[in-house]
Amino acid sequence: MTDLTPIIYADTAHISEKFLWPRSEPCHHGKRFRLTAASGQRLAPRNPTISIPPVAKGLELITSVQLRNIESQSDFSPRPKGYQKYPIRMDEECLRYSSQTKLGFIFGIARALGMVGFFLALFAAFVSMVAIFFASQSPQSSFNYNEMLSDLISVYIYILGFCLLMWGGVRLIYRSFPNFAAGFQPGPMWELNRRTGMVTVFANSAKKSTAWKVAYELPFHEFDCYIQSSPMSQGIAQYNLSLVHYSDEAHVALVGMFGVTSRLDQLAAWDMVQRYMDTSQPLPDIPVFEMYRSLDPTTIQADKEIDRPPRYWRDMDDETFNYKIVELQDRLSEFYYG
User: Fold this and answer.
1) CA 187 to CA 207: how far, in whole Å?
2) Does residue 334 have a pLDDT over 60?
3) Are 254 and 273 in contact (CB under 8 A)?
4) Cβ neighbours around 49 below 10 Å, total
5) Residue 242 has pLDDT above 70, yes or no
6) What CA–CA distance (Å, rounded) separates 280 from 300?
7) pLDDT tens for residues 124-148?
8) Cα–Cα distance between 8 and 110 in angstroms, integer?
9) 273 vs 46, 64, 71, 336, CA distance in Å?
10) Burial of 1 from C-beta contacts in 10 A (0-12 / 13-18 / 19+)
11) Distance, CA of 285 to chain centre
């Protein structure tokens, strides 16, 4: 029987007032560390009391439909067997992240290239056939349309077949051997623990010998958040977040969990992380946390006070959910830029 007892906060659990505590240790950051992990604009800690999560990596992280699909599985439980050792977690106790294995990354790239290549080749084949047809109608044309069409079809059959093999082949591998194709590193890279208020940075998640070995375990309030920008190929700046300890060279790259998105979404992500870690506030009200709300003491009390429906997101229809996304985008713009 799965234990669904709410968590108990440790004495070290985080509240926003701890950001005001004095810092006694000097900074030991090297030049290289400052130019990479601690680069960009430092975001001041806040005490966000309004739940305005990011869109792409917040509200849309898991949709209402996906929640219902997860819940319909016969072995569903908010705390499945062995969940404590999952390399990726996003629940009432912690945010934990691990990256894919190199093989999983290669499979993902191959599938994406196969899918994009297939549709591009299909479009190119159609355009080529239309162009050849009109060119053959010209009085000055000296080639035979049927012969050209036959040669063209032969070429595109090979191209389409190759792309389809990449796309379909990898999909088949994903279905047949999911742990092999989409596997993650043996251990996590980092963890933000709501129950204890601690940030854990692991040594090397890629090797079994060092997986789960702790490099740093430090209080959340001793970390600063930096927003870093990088231009995309179109010249539009995209942003990501980096948590850096004020003294030690301990670094959490939040880009893995919250991606590279707009500045607006990243500001919202930082506020959501602060609300998540602050045990005086309930869990952020987004679909991914709904199944865990009854397992967090502060959230239980907060939901009881406002009489929040326990299945608010899970019972929401698609039309209403899409409206919530548009509404959130407007609220984000007004809150941060208004």
Assistant:
1) 8
2) yes
3) yes
4) 11
5) yes
6) 12
7) 888 877 777 776 666 666 666 677 7
8) 45
9) 11, 22, 25, 16
10) exposed
11) 17
Q: Using CA atoms, how far apart are residues 325 and 67, in angstroms rounded to an integer?
A: 16
Q: Which two tokens stand for residue 278?
A: 């602050």
CB 146 within 8 A of CB 167: no
* Residue 139 φ/ψ, nearest 5 degrees: -60, -30
Take residue 191 and report the two structure tokens written for it: 């963890």
Give the three-class secondary structure for 30. Answer: coil
Cβ atoms < 10 Å from Cβ of 31: 7
Q: How many CB atoms lie within 10 A of CB 3?
A: 7
* CA distance to 12, 185, 211, 269, 293, per residue, from 281 (Å): 16, 32, 32, 16, 12
DSSP, collapsed to helix, strand or coil, labels residue 219 as: strand
How far apart (Å, rounded) are the C-alpha atoms in residues 180 and 277?
33
> Bridge-partner residues for 219, per DSSP?
198
β-pair type (237-245, 251-253): antiparallel
**Tally of residues, the chain:** 338
> Could you read off the pLDDT of 21-51 as tens digits, one per residue?
999 899 999 999 999 999 999 999 988 877 7
Cα separation, 289 vs 276, in Å, equals 10
Residue 167, pLDDT score: 82
Helix ranges (H only) for the chain are: 31-36, 64-71, 102-136, 145-176, 178-181, 255-258, 263-277, 297-306, 318-337
Report the DSSP beta bridge partners of residue 43: 225
